[in-house]
Amino acid sequence: MKRSLLATCLLLLMTQTHALTLKVATLSPDGSAWMVKMRAGASEIETRTQKRVAFKFYTGGTMGNDKAVLNKIKIGQLQGGAVTAGSLADFYQDAQVYTLPLRFKNFAEVDYVRSKMDASLSKSLEQGGMVNFGFAEAGFAYVMSKTAPIPSVVELRKRKVWIPENDPEAAETLKVFQVTPIPLSLGDVLPSLQTGIIDTVASSPIGTLALQWHTQVKYITELPLSYIVGVLAIDQKAFNKMDAPDQVVVREVMSRVFKDIDKQNRQDNLAAYASLLKQGIKPIKPNPQELLEWQKSGGMATEHIQKAGLISPAMLQVLDGHLKAFRANQKS
C-alpha cells in the first residue's frame, strides 16, 4: 500500500510538473461566438492532454488593446493573445498585408487571395516567434458616421475620424487622405461618439454591433475600406514547453476551431450588415467619380505605407499579382 501511495504521489507530481497553463487575452467579450468556440477548443485540449495543457482566457479587453497584450506576452505575463494579424508586424512585417486600404473589392477576391497566401503568412509568423493556427475573418471595415454621410474622400476630411491608438498603418493611410485622425483606445470610442469628440469610425458590422457603436452612427459608406483577420498567437517559447504529442493536439484542435470561426464570422458579418440597415443606418453609395477618388487615395496610401517600411515591396507584389490574376479570370 505504501508503494502504491508513493507511486500515485509521484504520478501526480509528474503531471503537475508538466502542466502548462497558457494565459491568453482577447478583446472579444465573454459569451461571444468567438469565445464560445475558443473555450470549447480549450476544453477539448485539456481533456485530450489529461490536463497537461490548459487555457486561461482574459476577455473583453481586460488586458488592454492588442499592443498592450503583445507587450505582456514579451515579458511573460501572458503566453498568447487573440489579436488582429496586422498587430503582429513586430514579429513579421508583412502580417498586415490584408489590411492595406481599399485593396479588396469583395469577398470573392478575399477568398481567392487567402487561398493563395494564408499558409505562407502563417508560416512566416511562426518563424518570427508566434505559433498560430490560421486566420479567422473579422470582416471588411466600413466607414460609419454620426453627423453626415461620407460618399467621398472630400467629405471624410471634414469629419472627426477615429483610428486605433498605436496603429501606424491607419495613421499613414489617413495622412495621405489628408485627414487628421483622433487616436483612441477601443474602450474610449463609444463615449467619444456620445460626446462628439469623434463622429466617424471604421469597423466591421460585427464589431459595430458588439461594441454598441451602432447606437451612435447614422450612415455607412458602402465601400470596403480594409479587410481584417484575427489570429490566436502563442509565444513560441511557451509552446515549446509542451511535449511533442501535446503540441500536435493543440495544433489540430485550434486549427479546426479557427476554420469554424472563419466560416461563422462571414455569415455573422453579412447578417450584422443587414441588421445595421434594418435599424435605420442609411447606406451611402459613392458615385463613379467618388469611387475613383477613393481608389486613387487608397493606392497612394499603400505606396506611402510601403515607402514608410510598413510593408515589403515583395509582399505587395505577391498580393497584387493574385488580385490581377483573379480579376483577369473574372473578365474572361
Notes on the structure:
By secondary structure, this protein is of the alpha/beta class. It has one domain: D-Maltodextrin-Binding Protein, domain 2. It is 51% helix and 17% strand. The chain is built from 12 helices and 11 strands. Strands 1, 2, 3, 4, 5, 8, 9, 10 and 11 form a 9-stranded mixed β-sheet that branches. α6 links the parallel β6 and β7. The radius of gyration is 22 Å and the shape is globular. Residues 7-17 have low confidence and may be disordered.
Label the CATH architecture.
3-Layer(aba) Sandwich
Identify low-pLDDT runs: 7-17
- Helices and strands, in N-to-C order? HEHEHEHEEHEHEHEHEEHHEHH
Given helix and strand content, the structural type is: alpha/beta
Instruction: Assess the beta-strand content as a share of residues.
Output: 15-25%
> What's the domain count?
1
Largest sheet: 9 strands, mixed
Number of helices: 12
Number of strands: 11
What Rg is obtained from the alpha carbons, in whole angstroms? 22 Å
Report how far apart the termini are: 79 Å
Level-1 CATH class name: Alpha Beta
